[in-house]
Structure formats: structure tokens, C-alpha cells
């Protein structure tokens, strides 16, 4: 009976091809409820081995396809009956091989300090698979494990498995679904038993790089004892790892490598890999001021760039600047890499390599790591795979314990979400580190996916050099105190093996120290006269003082031509009814038959920039159509779901127009776009929030990069943020883009904060951002109800002959001499004020719009006010509560301008708005409506 069932399974297509996933699902269903699967499947699953003394459900879950493959091979290679003892043992051997592939990493010798509590791995015991020592000399089929050898004694099979999966490299690849990738990785480790034979020259080079890593730390420790440097002691193998990634990458044709990392080992990387002159580092330790303007930053946040020579030619290296938010640099690196790849038309990601270096606790603990992995294969953010390196000190912060820093077995488990292979490697075995590094880069180049190297090491000193770690980690630091360095252990090994003499090993130490003391470069491959064509050219954008004006008008005929092109929909593209109406209205706007709305003017700004040679990139959670359906830059064919993007078809040879709806992230996406904008000065790079207030999920990006990157690091950035903002009665989380937070961070002309209220204003504002050579972040409070407001319209002439007005004067036909009150405002509230004034015939009140709140336009505001010679009061009106919006951050600017008037009204500046509130807005429509009515009336009467 059972034999017949098994025969049916072997020969059925149900266990092959696309049905494999079905079989796997059945097995998972069986584990949850055996009675829920068909009887024939239950019979087979019941026959799977169980843990001695346990139940069938103790069997570790492994892809069922391998069970069938192994059993199938056993059936083909045995001449005995299917139920014979030899056949059963053959199956058990194949299952044992598979168990090592799945769980060998849990037994691997990857901890230099041998602190890991052993994890029981019953799958790796012979008895688990109903084998014994009596079977060790019996030959069994090896499946795919022994390349070129069909059969081998069980003893040799087990020894090979132990060497491959349980020595200095713990290999996690069996979570990968793709069979080709998995077999490729198995072959790379199994073919050499995870221990390839490197030449003496290669191993000497490894020792030399370890000597450099240790030598720098020893030198700095003796010269600056107790000074913070976040040294690499205990993780010195990181330096030869990086050296190999760069050199091997160059051999693959990589032209640029962008690196992100936090503090640990950063100074060592700067000096020994990127080639920073040690004398410059010493100046930083001595506290010398190294930049003319700005605040500067601590030495272990600084970025750097250089060129090195590799077997494939010159390679440009760029180390990203990074704040103390440890993992936030990861998506910044990805954005910079994508910009470089786009510049090179490197669609596959073969020419620019991202390397992100992490700490163990931060990698497991910070959500932006998950977000960065999640973006790795998406259309908008993919970069052809990233090499992730975890410098795993096994302690995180000084007082941490793994039980407190994560809920997973490894700090790297988060990477399994994208099926990235993970190589845990013992930092005290440089040969194993080199092999894992080579396989990692080869995998990235072959499959264009992320890969993780978990460099398991330790931290010889505390979290920083002023910290005493033994107070909270006594057992670990007792071991560390007695433990020789990686360099010492490797030098001893090479001397014992006759690769070099003790004198040779000592000479390496002396040579390196002499170079350091002489102030010589100590990065072996540094190019002294680099090929500047590998650089991003920022020269045209340097040294420009602030200017709010630019010639942004566009000749009428060109406007009409481009407007016509951006409204063209090819034959065969069936447009949804409401979208068709939008495009029909845009054609009327192009012909002058309708006033221009926001979506038309914004989209036409992109068209004109593309026509002038400027690439445009827009991402965000709903940017294709716009959260409020105003943009519709992406047209979806109702016939087949295909898309047409008119702005990508404006003309032959046009620059790239990129528009992608992002995955549901703010932090990683905004950081990515910041990285992109800092690497693409000629582009208009835009991130749009679904609702403006959602940017607070990326507040760290604004705080650490956008607002302060220039003053800390001298990093220019022209990133534009579009943040929908406006009080429409939608509650606390859908009203305010937190204008006050941006204004509070404004100083030294670090960024622009604008609140445009007409289509012409957004047209000229977006064009100004690119046409000027000045590069500053632009924060735009974009409207919601104004997208279709009947009064918020412009004309083609406004676009052709206008410019961005930082202050819009009163649009009415008031007699300036009769004006006794001026209301200043920003944003949508202007239209509420104008409607109230008209309804109540208040011809004694002028309404001015301040469209740029920072840098504050004092001169322009004065020009708009100076003709009102009979003013008695000046009011600032805002929709936001008293403690929010522009009031606190901008009132001193307004008072200064009002004081410049003949009657000096600065001291009489009045406020009209919502009362102070902990929440940004009311949640009840009735409350919202009453507050809105009151603040408008107050503006005229307060």
C-alpha cells in the first residue's frame, strides 16, 4: 500500500515544477494540523524522521522539494527494494547533508572569544538520522555535495560537512528560494570546504593590512590616550576585507565605490583604505579648525573621497558623511549610488558598488535597516545589490546584552526578509574572512542582490576609549584582556607554516610606524594624481551667495509646444474617465481656454526643465497621480494595465524623467533622495509626502542631513520636499506639515521654506530651484484645496513673463491711502481672508502673502508695505495654533519690517490664529469650522 503511494508520488508531476510551492504549503499545513491534508500526503509526512523521544513535529522545517529530490536519487541509485535498510540509510545520509546546509552555522566556530553558548543542533547528530558509528565506513551516494565523486564513506562525508559548515564560516543560504542562487552558493563553499588555499603572497598581503589596522590604533592610543576615536581593536580583519572588496570590485569593472558606516573603525578606514593623510588626522585630534565656515563636525563623522588603483583600473571611493544616528547613512549611500549609476547609464548596477557597514546592535535594532532592505529590489531604489558588513562586537553598546538588543538568534536575521545570503565569519581567521568576502562580492555581481558578511569579532576597549567596559561586562573583558590580537595570531600562524620569518613580521610593524610618524600616505593603492572624470562635478555650484531671484520665465511658443506634448496620449491607451477629463482640461489650458490649475503648472515646470537639459526625479507614496489626484503624470491604460508617462516622451535625447510611487516609508526614502540630490547637482530631485505631516517619520533626515549637512560637512544639496499642508478639517494628522519645525531649524541660509499659493508660483519656484546655480534644500508647503480652487488659477502669460514672488502684494484695487490695516499671511488662509473682505466690504484692509518664509524676504515685504502711509495696525494671520506655524519663528522679521515704516508699527504687530494647542488641529469638523471662522474675523478686528 505505502510503496504504491510512494511510487505515485515519485512519478507524479504534482511534486515538480510550479507545484513545488503547493507541496511546501501542504507540509506547512500538515505541521499545523495533520488532519487537514489528504491522506496520501499525511502518510508520507508521517514517515519523516522524528527526534528521539519527541514527536514528528520536532522535525525542522526544510523545503519539501529537497526531500523529494533526495528520495528520488536514492530510488534511482539503489538496486534493493524501496524499503530495504540500505535504501533507507541512503536517504538518511542525504538528509544529514541537507541538515548541515541548513543548520551547520549554529555549530560553526565563529566567535573569537568562544563566548557563544552552544546551541543544541540535533539535526547534525548521526542518531537523529538513524545512523550510527557503525555506518562511518560504509559508502553512500553524496548527491551534489562531493563534486565529481558519486560515493564516499560516511566518515569522509561528515568530516567534509564539518569543515565546510562548522569551522570559521557559518553559512546561511537555505532560506533563499531561488534554486540557482542557492546551488551557486553551495558550490562556492562546498567545492573548497570553505577553506581555499591562498598563495603566500596573498597571505602576506593579508598580514600587511592587519598590521596597518593594528598599527594605526596602537599609534593613536599611545599619542592620544583616552581620546575618543571608536577604534577598531578586535575587528582588524575589517581592513583587509575592505581592501579585497575594492580591489576585486575593480577587477569586475567597478568604477566607483560608495561606503557608509558609523563610528567604529571609521578613522582606520579613512587612513588605511581611502588614503587620508595621517597628518590631517593628527590635526583633527589636535583640535585645529579645518574649514573656513560652518560648525564642522567631530572627526569620526567626516566623509572623504579618493581614487585607488585596482587590477581593473582606477576606482573612485567615497565615504559618506554620517551623524551619530548609526544606520541612517545606509539609505543615503543607496541614493548616492543610484545617482551615480543613472549618470553612467549603469542600468544593471555593475559600475557603482554600495558598501554599507553596520554595528551589530544597530543593525538589529534600527528600523531604517529594514526599510533599506525593503527598497533594495524596488524599481525606484534598486542599486544592483549592496554588500553589507556587520562589525559584530557581540555587545553593541557597553552595557548591552544580546538578550536585550534583539529577539532573533543573530543580529543579521533581518536580512532574511529579502533572502540575502549571510556569512558569519570568525574575525580571527583572516583566510576565512578573505574567502567570505570574495564569495560575497561575486554573489552581488552575479545576482545583483544584497549580501551580508557578519564579521564576528570583539571590542578590545569600551564603547569609546574613555569608557571602562569591565564594569558591566566583566566576563567578556576578562577574556579580551588575555586574548592575542588577530594580527598576532595570524603572524604566528604564517611563521609556523613557513610563509615568512618572525623578523619579516616585525619589519612590517616598524615600516608602518615609520610611515605614520613621517606623515606618509599608508593606503597602498592610493592614486596621487586622480582621474577627475570619475568625480561628481560640483564646481559650477560652489561659492554662490544667497539670491532669491532667477529668470524663470519661458517664451510663450515654447510653453505652448511643451504643454501640447505633455498632453499627448498615444493611440491604444485607454484613459480612465476622470483622468481623461483632466487631460482634456489641460489641452484647453494650453490653448488659453481655461485658467491654469496647479497640476498643469507644476507638470509644465517639469516639461520645461527637461527641455533645458535638466533630469527630473520624483518619488513618494502617491506621486504618479498625486495624493489628491492633481498630477496624473503617469497614465494607466484601462485595457491592459500598462502605463504611459508623457513627460518621458517630450523629445528625442531628452534627459531622464523618473517618477515612482515609493513603498510605504518616509525615513529611508527621504534619506535615499537626499543621497541622490547630493550626487546629482543638475537634477531636480523631489520627494513628496503623502500628507505633509508624515515627514515626521523621517525627522532624523531633516535634522541631521537636510538642515545641517552644509554647515557641518560642507555638503550642498538641492533636494526639494513637497509637503501637502492646509487646514481642511481633516484632523490632527492630516492638516499640518509642521511648518514651525522647519523654521526653527533655519539659520545661515541653510534651506528655503516656501508656501506658494498660485499655479504660477509653483511653476517659477520649481524652475528657480534648478536654474539658479545655488544649491539649497527647498521645503514647500503645498496646498490641498487650492489644487482645484476656482480663485487659485494663473495664465500662460504669468508663466511666460513672471518669476517667483517671495511676497505677493494685495491683488485688489484698493486705494493705498485708505488702507489702515494690513493682514500678512501665508498659504490657503489668504483665500478665506479675501472672501471675507469682499463679503464684508472691508476696503480699509490690504492682504499680503509671504510666499517665502525663509530666507525671510525683508526687502520685498517692505516694498509691499511702504505705500500704505496711513497704517494703524499690522496683523499676522495663520491657520495653525499660536504655538505652531510661522508665528514664533518669523515674528521678529515681521516686526523689523513694520518698524521700518514711517509710523513704526513693529511693536503693534498682532496675531490672529487658533489658540495654542498640543495637537496640530481639531478632530471635529464643527470645532474646525468655528475656529476657522473666528481666526478670519480676528484678522480684521483684533
Q: How would you characterize the overall build of this protein?
A:
The protein folds into 4 domains: 48-172, Helix Hairpins, CATH 1.10.287.1150; 200-275 and 317-527, 3-Layer(aba) Sandwich (Rossmann fold), CATH 3.40.50; 556-801, Rossmann fold; 809-941, Multifunctional 2-oxoglutarate metabolism enzyme, C-terminal domain (Rossmann fold), CATH 3.40.50.11610. 39% of the residues lie in helices and 12% in strands. It contains 32 helices and 24 strands. An 8-stranded mixed sheet has the order 3-9-10-8-7-4-6-5. Strands 14-11-15-16-18-17-22 form a 7-stranded mixed sheet, sandwiched between helices. Helix 8 crosses helix 10 (266-272), helix 20 packs antiparallel against helix 21 (577-591) and helix 23 runs parallel beside helix 24. The chain is globular and about 105 Å long.
Question: In a few lines, what is going on in this structure?
Answer:
It catalyses: N(6)-[(R)-lipoyl]-L-lysyl-[protein] + 2-oxoglutarate + H(+) = N(6)-[(R)-S(8)-succinyldihydrolipoyl]-L-lysyl-[protein] + CO2. This is 2-oxoglutarate dehydrogenase E1 component. This protein has 942 residues and is of the alpha/beta class.
List keywords for this structure.
942 residues; alpha/beta; Helix Hairpins; Rossmann fold; 4 domains; eight-stranded mixed β-sheet; seven-stranded mixed β-sheet; 32 helices; disordered N terminus
Average of pLDDT: 89
Count the domains.
Answer: 4
What does the largest sheet look like? 8 strands, mixed
CATH class of the largest domain equals Alpha Beta
Q: How many individual β-strands?
A: 24
Oligomerization state of this entry? single chain
- Can you list the strand order of the major beta sheet? 3-9-10-8-7-4-6-5
Question: What is the overall shape?
Answer: globular
Instruction: Report how far apart the termini are.
Output: 94 Å
Strand percent estimate: 5-15%
Helix/strand/pairing class, anyone? alpha/beta
Count of individual helical segments: 32
Helix fraction, binned, reads 25-40%
What's the CATH H-level homologous superfamily of the largest domain? Thiamin diphosphate (ThDP)-binding fold, Pyr/PP domains
